[in-house]
Amino acid sequence: MTCLITMRSETYALRAERVLKNRGISAKKIKLDGEYSLRGCSYGIQLDCRNRAVALSVLNEINLPYSDIRSL
């Protein structure tokens, strides 16, 4: 199953993608559609849900803000 972590900016998403990949977690930056944009989120990180807990821990560790987490 795939999960999506939404972020407010492309810069945050690029940084998250880079940091997660450096930690061995496969992650992909994506541009979000209108549903998420209405909430102020324009980019996200797509990853395997099995890596969700570790990914969130890494993002919190480096103080990288995210908005929402969803299963796709």
- Helix-and-strand structural type: alpha+beta
Mean model confidence by pLDDT: 91
Secondary-structure element order, N to C: EHEHEHE
Question: For this structure, what is the CATH class?
Answer: Alpha Beta
> How much strand content do the residues show?
25-35%
> What is the number of strand segments?
4
Rg result: 11 Å
Molecular shape:
globular
Counting structural domains, the number is 1
User: Helix coverage percent of residues?
Assistant: 25-40%
Q: Which CATH-level-2 architecture?
A: 2-Layer Sandwich
Count helical runs: 3
pLDDT below 50 for ≥5 consecutive residues: which ranges? none
Strand order of the largest sheet: 2-3-1-4
Main beta sheet strand tally, sense and closure: 4 strands, antiparallel
CATH 4th-level superfamily: Hypothetical protein rpa1041
CATH fold field value: Alpha-Beta Plaits
Rounded to the nearest angstrom, the distance between the terminal CA atoms is 7 Å
Report on this structure:
By secondary structure, this protein is of the alpha+beta class. The chain has a single domain, classed as Alpha-Beta Plaits (2-Layer Sandwich), CATH 3.30.70. It is built from three helices and four strands, in the order E-H-E-H-E-H-E. It has helices at 10-22, 34-37, 52-61; strands spanning 2-7, 27-31, 43-48, 68-71. Strands 2-3-1-4 form a four-stranded antiparallel sheet, covered by helices on one side. The relative contact order is 0.34. The model has no long low-confidence stretch (mean pLDDT 91).
